[in-house]
User: What shape does this take?
Amino acid sequence: MSKNKNKLTKAVAMALTGTVLSVGAVSGAQAHTMYNTFTTTELSATDGWNYGGIGNPTYPTVSPGWVGTASATTLPFGYAGTSHLNWAAELHSAGNTLEISKADAVTRYGFAAEIDTGAGAWQDAGVNGSGVPTANGPTGWRHQTDIGLIKAEETMWVTLNPVVVTGTGYDIQNFGITVFTGMDSGTGSYSHHGSWNCPGCTPAKPYEADNPFGTVGLSYLTHDGTVDGVDGLTFLALAGQVYSIYLGGAGVGNWSQNIAEYSLNISTAPVPVPAAVWLFGSALASLVTLGQRRKNVMAVPA
Assistant: This one.
């Protein structure tokens, strides 16, 4: 009887310890950023290329290299897709903040990464360069939509706030961001030409569509077309999961014009522990105490 109670007490204590550790363990590591070093002087061209496929022979399979990864030819998180990739961020523990920007790339790595986008990249203003309404209405354009990857090492809330860097081009007042679970794993031909986020196109290209740009392995999670430095997009990032971030100006210009450098603030917050977890822990603690009291009573001589 006494041995069984001791086993129960130890088992409960181990369960309680495990619960506390899983709730309270926090890594001391800091978040860090990674950047594609491929740049272009053409405002309407796409920076951040990884693929040199059909129709784009001048772009190297791996652009001049990456900074912030294990080596110049190592892509973030094992990325092997054909779509262009501009930057990546690894979030080690909740509560940290970091910035995706040219200034951050210079400070960390001494390299001025090209972090810019068009005022109408995520969604244009619904007019052409001459101000004439387009047939399909507002639509996103692949050319200047920046693509980044975010990976959280523990489950946390992630908030994204993009702003234009003052004096670097068109003053984009509004951004659009779409978040996808996963990252592109396509190995076929890839083209940065064409539209996306285009409900008025034939066939329609809805905001909630999976696998934009002909990618493979991306599942739509959420989007917001009214994001700026004050109003951010927030999503729950699960531990170990990679998320693809598609970002550009929304409703304030055209993809081929009104280019500007941007800075993306990434802030994180821990996921509140549900009350049920604490109640479960308290119940286990009470059970341990009760077991100890009973054992002490049984030890008293008759």
Remarks:
- Helices lie at 2-24, 102-109, 275-298.
- The radius of gyration is 25 Å.
- Residues 136 and 200 are 5 Å apart (CA to CA).
